[in-house]
Design a protein that fits this description.
Layout lengths: L5 E10 L2 E10 L6 E3 H8 L4 E10 L5 E14 L2 E10 L5 E4 L2 E4 L3 E3 L1 H7 L1 E4 L3 E4 L2 H11 L1
Parallel strand pairs: 2-9, 3-6
Antiparallel strand pairs: 1-2, 1-5, 3-9, 4-5, 5-6, 7-8, 10-11
Length: 144
Amino acid sequence: MVSTTRALRNVKIRLLDREVDCTALFDTGSGVTAVRRSFFEESFGAKWLVLDKPLRLYRVNGEFIEVDKYAQVTIIIDEFKLPETVFVVDDFVEEVEVDGRRVRLPDLIVGSGTMDKYGIALDPKEGVKLTGASLLLRALHMAS
């Protein structure tokens, strides 16, 4: 059984000259970083690119979805600007019902590849923690 860790965090997403706030789920069990299509359209319009061949992504329950859109965005966490490719997912549920109440799901899922690339760790006490590569990016940004 694979152990996964998750944390919610408010972040910003920038595409071209527009920047929006969103809720992100940092999920070590997710192999990709993905954004809900309806959120992306509302925020940026249909400014995504289309893959030559759809990508098959698997959900926790074993079902799969096909994704054929992506975008190059910047994810902003505190003052850190992280350029990233996100998959724009059509079949991304906006809310679910849990114990009789509606729960809104995050707009963005930040997967393990993005977290590894930028040195993002999930700490039980601190939540999303920027370390390693993120601190190097900050040092380089401050030097320029």
